[in-house]
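User: I'm preparing a small set of examples for a lab meeting where we compare how different chains pack in three dimensions. I only have the primary sequence for this one, and I'd like the structure in token form so I can line it up with the others. Please keep the answer compact; I'll paste it straight into my notes.
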Amino acid sequence: MLLRLDIQFFAGEKTEKATPKKREDERKKGKVAKSQDVNTAILLLACFMVLMVFAPFMKDGMVSLYYHTFTERINWEVTEHSVHQIFSGAAMDAAKIIAPIALIAIVAGLASNLMQIGFLFTSEPLKFDLKKIDPIQGAKRIFSIRALVELLKSLLKIVCIGVVTFAVIWIYKDDMMMMAFKSVDSSLAFFGKTMLIMGIAATIALLFLAVFDYAYQRFDYEKNMRMSKQDIRDEHKNIEGDPLIKSKIKEKQRQMAMRRMMSEVPTADVIITNPTHYAIAVKYDEAISSAPYVVAKGVDLTAQKIKEVAKAHQIMTVENRPLARSLYAQVEIGEAIPEQFYQAIAEILAYVYRLERKV
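Assistant: Understood. Below is the structure token output for the 359-residue chain.
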């Protein structure tokens, strides 16, 4: 009894890697190994790179918007048309300013996801599930090992980004103190440059952490995807079909094939027998084949059944042991007799036709 319980325990333990079918099924549900930190790091890095390239264009756009708003549009009479014109013009100018960042953010977001999981579209995560609002399950998620790991990750990210940004500020602290003696343009240029350096450095640190996060997500995904030996057997059974059901289907198919074969026996010209173990039903029809062909064959019980059907329909039976064995081994049902058997079959058919004429 204890041995049986131990076998059941180990059979139910999830120690096996997930099969391709389970991976595909889980992928269709949207369950894949993905690190959100990788997406965030790539997105931020791309945005800061765009800022480095398009910063002069964005600065000119904002200055132009400020200038037109407070020099020309401020003197307009407040009417429905003027308000609409002011807001639509400001919206268009703002859209032109943020367009480079918005476009690169979309491209970076798509690229980071494609890089991790490839193309995947599924609506399964959007379906309503009562388990998601179950307070007990929610409490388990809050106080789980995964939640603790996510907390530690967040703290580590805050510390790393804080250290990096403080280091950049510390490096440029003397230049910051001197900004009080610089012009507005010089101050904006300095702080813009410092912000970009700070952002890129913090993003590189975040990208470094994202590599470890992705490795952890892969590990956690593979751990949750593990299957027990019983799960693999059940999956194989579902794919291949229950052996008991398959055997019943095969038996049913065999019975149907047997019935079809027996229905052809009354059309045969002669039954060649062993005489007890083999029975071959042969027919010759010039409209169907240029040579005689086998319409039914069988051994033992099937052979006895063929002979019974032939006797009931007055089909002549001829005993020829070597020929019966050879035909059973070399010719399938519906196939024409090979050339090496032509003479033997011709003699038998001639004998049968002579007897039928006498009758």
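A couple of notes for your slides: Residues 1-11 have pLDDT under 50 and may be disordered. The first strand starts at residue 14 and ends at 16.

User: Perfect, thanks.
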